[in-house]
Amino acid sequence: MNSDGPTIYVDADSCPVKEETYRVAKRYDLRVILVAAQWLRIPTEPWLEIQVVKEDGQLDAADDWIAERAGEGDIVITQDISLASRCLESSARVIGPRGVPFTPESIGEALAGRELMANLREMGEISGGSAPFGKRDRSNFLQALDQAVQAIRRGR
Question: Which residues is 95 bridged to in the sheet?
Answer without folding.
Answer: 77, 101
